Amino acid sequence: MKKIAIAAITATSILALSACSGGDKEVIAKTDAGDVTKGELYTNMKKTAGASVLTQLVQEKVLDKKYKVTDKEIDNKLKEYKSQLGDQYTALEEQYGKDYLKEQVKYELLTQKAAKDNIKVTDADIKEYWEGLKGKIRASHILVADKKTAEEVEKKLKKGEKFEDLAKEYSTDSSASKGGDLGWFAKDGMVAEFSKAAFKLKTGEVSDPVKSQYGYHIIKKTEERGKYEDMKKELKSEVLEQKLNDSNAVQEAVQKVMKKADIEVKDKELKDTFNTSSTNSSTSSSSNSSK
């Protein structure tokens, strides 16, 4: 998944065996050369992924005490992943089970709430972002494979159906889940046919179907850069969203919460897990594996 570390899922599942019924000598696999016990499996997994998995498990407990994540939020995020990943999501659900994926999504949402609570957006951040929008526009599109479908969508738009709803229903690219929103871009940020049509539009205007190498686009120009003071509030939300997509910034925010928690690791092999350097290392590797 986009933000679920598959390696962490696997390691956490196996490390969780230590909490299950049965002793360390419970046989996990039999071979002619000898058996593999739960204790052996746990010990080896702890050596390879113990610090990063312990970090996630402890962080989830600490964050869960401070922030609330509802079942509805978890279900909505799972639906988003299912829409984005399709068959890959189905394979993950079959392999790990929906309950376990829910736990991983809950952890992701908890870290996002901690980040929102602790990441600050300064006036300087906003002004820098605004300066970077010079020469750019914001637009949405509905991308379909053929002209017939494009004309069908066009008719529905003319009848008054919402652009965002039709994008979610028809569009074939990843922007569909966001109602077709492509964010801000410069003329050279899109293929030539798309940019030529998009930059001719007035704000709020919708184009005729535009053909490119990707299919047929129906484009709606949603915004152009205005005065700084007029855009400041809106841009603050956009800058915050960018920071929330920065795994390092999110982990720094989580660490602010963790520093206030009373954590004592009993396992001598993992006792340094929550030292600043080792924690940053383990969370960084977990974040990298989720990209």
TrEMBL record:
Record carries keyword Isomerase: yes
Residues of the PpiC domain: 134-223
UniProt cross-references to InterPro entries, sorted A to Z: Foldase_PrsA, PPIase_dom_sf, PPIase_PpiC, PPIase_PpiC_CS, PrsA_foldase, Trigger_fac_C, Trigger_fac_C_sf, Trigger_fact/SurA_dom_sf
Composition-biased stretches (Low complexity): 275-291
Record's catalysed reaction(s): [protein]-peptidylproline (omega=180) = [protein]-peptidylproline (omega=0)
Membrane topology category: Lipid-anchor
Main location: membrane
GO cellular component: plasma membrane
Compartment annotation: Cell membrane
The EC number(s) this enzyme carries: 5.2.1.8
SUPFAM superfamilies with a match to the protein in the record: FKBP-like, Triger factor/SurA peptide-binding domain-like
Coiled coil: none
GO molecular function: peptidyl-prolyl cis-trans isomerase activity
PROSITE patterns: PPIC_PPIASE_1, PPIC_PPIASE_2, PROKAR_LIPOPROTEIN
HAMAP family, alphabetized: Foldase_PrsA (MF_01145)
Protein purpose: Plays a major role in protein secretion by helping the post-translocational extracellular folding of several secreted proteins.
Protein name: Foldase protein PrsA
Underlying gene: prsA
